[in-house]
Amino acid sequence: MNKPPRKPNKATSAASSDDTLPDNQDLEENPATATITVSAVEVPELTEEEQCDRLHLERKVERAFFEAGKALTELRDRRLYRSTHKTFEEYCRERFGFSRRQPYHLIEAAVIFDNLVEKCERNVHILPTNEWQIRPLSKLDADIQPEAWEQAVESANGKVPSHRIVKDVVQRIMERTQVPNTYQLGEVCQILAKDNPELRGKGGCWGIVSQVNDFSCTVKLWDGEYTVGLRHLKSYNYLPAECEQMQVICDRISRVYSSSLEESVQKFLESLGKLNRAYLTALEEKFLRVLESEHGSEIIR
pTM higher than 0.90, yes or no? Predict the structure, then answer.
């Protein structure tokens, strides 16, 4: 009787009886046990010269907005734009691509930066690095700005504070020292330009309060409306009848001034915008009526 064929034995390798897996199998099937060797790279310390260069370049970055503000101040004050442009705003827009307010923000920031450098006692090495960080400080008097900046640095744990942190500190100080806004609609006030670049050329002008805000008033002048902080306003304390009369005069000047006029005529109207009395003289009244007649804006009363 024939015996059934014998099954062949399975071939086995010497490695099959070894508990150690091949290197590639160990990495693929057991990634948790894989070991990666990283060679340490030594980072050389800065030399003394490199440290000085770094500090110098950092200071240039920090002061970039300050230098821009100082340069714009000189360009404006010396009217170095006059050979190509009629106004400073037009020059800044076409030369640098600035909006109307941007150069004034930089100019004001340079003034604030100088004030912080001069008066800050603590954390004097922590200074603003851009205009946006210190813009909220423009709402405070110069003698309070250093205190506000130091508080903001402290809130930022000794680092350069953000715009939001500075704004919060300024808001708390304003609430603490808030003076009630007692101005009323229709009241006649004088503009005190002081160190506010946005009011340049408006110092001594009178205006009519058209809106009362928490910390400012919107004031109508002969050439438009301006939002002015309380410290930049001074009431003339006119009687109600005098305020109404000045409102009429303001409206009359505005109607004429909006037209395209010769420079001499504009200067005359601007002089009326700086009157410190609640009436026009007979000659002023006569000139204004002539201008109203010429430009078809005479008021019928």
Answer: no
